[in-house]
C-alpha cells in the first residue's frame, strides 16, 4: 500500500463550506482535493493500492483526518467538487478516535499528524531532502504539506524522518504526488 499524508493548514474541520468556494471559504480545500485526485486517479481507472490521508488543521475543531482508500472508494470523480463533496459529507459525521466511514472508501476521525506518525510513519517530501531518483529503495508512505511550509511544531515532530526531494524546484503538493507515483510506476515496470 502506498500512502500520502497531506497537511491542510487552513482546511475547515466542519462541513459548513460551499463547494463553490473551496479556495476561500473552505481554507484551501481545493489544494487537498487535487492531492486526492493525483493520488488515486489513472486514465480511466483508480490506483487501488493507494491511500490519501488529509490532515485538516483549520477551524472549528482541529485536527481531523479524512482518509480516501483507493481500494474501496466509490462516488469519486476526477474533479475537485467531487472530492470536496465527499470530504464535506465525512465532516458532517461525528468523529471519534477511530476512523468512521462516511461513504464507501472515505473515513474521518479526530486527530492529526501525531496520530498518523504512530500509525503509518512516513518519509517527508521536502526540497531539502535527498533526490528520490537516487534512492535504491522507496518508502511506502509520504508526508507533504499544502501551500504552507511545515510549522515549527511540525518540523519538531518530523525532524528524525527521512526526507526526499522530487526535484530542484518547489512544486505544488499534487504535482509532487504525481512525480512520486511516476517514479514508483517506472521502477515497478522495469
Features:
single chain; about 190 residues; alpha/beta; Alpha/beta knot; two-stranded antiparallel ribbon; globular
What value does the average pLDDT take?
Answer: 96
CATH class value: Alpha Beta
Distance between the termini: 19 Å
Please list the strands of the largest sheet in the order they lie side by side.
6-7-5-4-1-9-8-10
Query: Which structural category do the helix and sheet elements fall into?
Result: alpha/beta
CATH architecture descriptor name? 3-Layer(aba) Sandwich
Strand content: 25-35%
Percent of residues in helices: 25-40%
At the fourth level of CATH, the homologous superfamily is SPOUT methyltransferase, trefoil knot domain
Please tell me what the overall shape is: globular
β-strand number? 10
What oligomeric assembly is this protein in?
single chain
CA-based gyration radius: 15 Å
Work out the helix count: 5
Low-pLDDT parts are none
What is the H-and-E element order?
Answer: EHEEEEHEEHEEHEH
Amino acid at each position: 500500500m502506498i500512502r500520502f499524508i497531506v497537511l491542510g493548514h487552513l482546511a475547515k474541520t466542519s462541513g459548513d463550506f460551499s463547494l463553490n468556494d473551496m479556495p476561500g471559504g473552505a481554507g484551501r480545500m481545493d489544494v487537498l482535493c487535487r492531492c486526492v485526485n493525483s493520488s488515486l486517479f489513472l486514465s480511466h481507472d483508480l490506483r487501488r493500492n493507494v491511500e490519501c490521508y488529509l490532515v485538516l488543521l483549520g477551524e472549528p475543531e482541529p485536527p481531523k483526518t479524512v482518509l480516501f482508500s483507493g481500494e474501496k472508494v466509490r462516488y469519486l470523480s476526477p474533479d475537485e467538487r467531487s472530492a470536496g463533496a465527499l470530504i464535506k459529507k465525512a465532516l458532517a459525521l461525528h468523529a471519534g478516535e477511530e476512523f468512521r466511514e462516511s461513504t464507501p472508501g472515505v473515513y474521518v476521525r479526530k486527530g492529526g499528524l501525531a496520530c498518523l506518525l504512530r500509525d503509518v510513519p512516513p518519509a517527508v517530501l521536502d526540497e531539502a531532502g535527498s533526490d528520490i531518483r537516487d534512492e535504491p529503495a522507496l518508502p511506502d508512505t509520504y508526508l507533504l504539506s499544502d501551500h504552507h511550509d511545515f510549522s515549527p511544531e511540525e518540523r519538531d515532530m518530523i525532524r528524525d524522518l527521512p526526507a526526499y526531494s522530487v526535484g530542484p524546484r518547489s512544486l505544488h503538493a499534487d504535482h509532487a504526488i504525481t512525480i512520486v507515483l511516476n517514479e514508483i510506476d517506472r521502477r515497478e515496470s522495469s
